């Protein structure tokens, strides 16, 4: 009987310990609903507004300076006054380079001029005798003004004026005419065309037309009351003028 009572006591103690173990903290009863675990609040990262790209710089439609223009020219030169009776019109050629600061309408032009004229209507540059051929070479310095010079303009009118010197050469004196140097006061007017203006406002190619009038002084080239086989020649006065087509570029 004692053994039976002892066995029942041990069995009851064992089942009671198991029940207590099942109900210990951290162990929910079988079949009970487990409440969800509450997570700490984490704020969403701030979204920075997307910045618009900076505006593109405005295109510069004027020429950047200093502005350098170089041109070659070809045309015809003739004389006015009494000298026109003895010097035929003939071919003319030349070259010029002018430079101006940025956004300033006035620049400095340096210019070379050449020409050939026949005396007394003796043929022309190709058929006339060389001894009657007057060859001119000289240079000029001018101030050149153009209001459209620094704009993105296809057409650029301009005026120019300055001082110059030319040497007139003959193989030998003919009828009182002799080789000599002459002073010049040049005045010019012209227009340049710039086809194909690019976004920077400068065209690498320029074509134009130009007219010049040169007042001559210190003239010892023409004869003075000289008796020749052609008669008596008196001092011949007159000036020269020329028309040219120009071609070059702006840099």
Describe the structure.
- Helices cover about 10% and strands about 45% of the residues.
- With about 250 residues, the chain is mainly beta.
- It has one domain: Beta Barrel (Porin), CATH 2.40.160.
- The protein has an eight-stranded antiparallel barrel. It has a two-stranded antiparallel ribbon with strand order 8-9.
- The longest helix has 21 residues, at about 1-20.
- The protein is rod-shaped.
- The model is unreliable at about 20, about 55-60 and about 230-235 (pLDDT under 50).
Helix-strand layout with pairing:
Elements: H1 2-22, E1 67-79, E2 90-100, E3 106-118, E4 133-145, E5 155-169, E6 180-193, E7 206-217, E8 226-228, E9 231-233, E10 240-250
Antiparallel strand pairs: 1-2, 1-10, 2-3, 3-4, 4-5, 5-6, 6-7, 7-10, 8-9
Q: How would you summarize what this structure contains?
A:
With 251 residues, the protein is mainly β. It is 8% helix and 43% strand.
Query: How many domains in all?
Result: 1
Overall strand count: 10
Oligomer: single chain
As laid out across the biggest beta sheet, the strand order is 1-2-3-4-5-6-7-10
Secondary structure: helix percent: under 10%
Described by strand count, sense and barrel closure, the largest sheet is:
8 strands, antiparallel, barrel
The chain-level structural class is mainly beta
Give Rg in angstroms. Answer: 50 Å
> Tally the helices: what do you get?
1
């Amino acid at each position: 009987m004692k053994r039976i009572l002892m066995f029942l006591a041990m069995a009851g103690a064992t089942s009671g310990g198991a029940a207590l173990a099942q109900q210990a903290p951290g162990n929910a009863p079988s079949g009970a609903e487990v409440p969800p675990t509450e997570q700490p609040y984490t704020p969403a990262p701030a979204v920075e507004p997307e910045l618009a790209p900076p505006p593109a710089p405005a295109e510069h439609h004027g020429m950047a300076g200093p502005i350098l223009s170089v041109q070659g020219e070809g045309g015809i030169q003739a004389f006015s006054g009494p000298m026109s009776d003895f010097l035929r019109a003939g071919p003319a050629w030349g070259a010029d380079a002018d430079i101006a600061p940025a956004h300033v309408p006035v620049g400095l032009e340096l210019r070379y001029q050449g020409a050939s004229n026949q005396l007394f209507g003796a043929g022309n540059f190709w058929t006339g005798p060389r001894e009657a051929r007057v060859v001119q070479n000289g240079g000029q310095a001018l101030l050149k003004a153009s209001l459209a010079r620094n704009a993105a303009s296809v057409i650029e009118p301009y005026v120019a004026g300055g001082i110059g010197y030319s040497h007139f050469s003959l193989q030998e004196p003919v009828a009182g005419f002799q080789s000599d140097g002459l002073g010049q006061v040049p005045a010019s007017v012209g227009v340049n065309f710039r086809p194909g203006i690019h976004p920077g406002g400068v065209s690498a190619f320029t074509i134009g037309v130009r007219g010049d009038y040169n007042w001559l002084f210190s003239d010892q080239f023409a004869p003075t009351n000289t008796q020749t086989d052609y008669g008596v020649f008196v001092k011949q006065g007159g000036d020269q003028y020329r028309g040219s087509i120009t071609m070059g570029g702006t840099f």
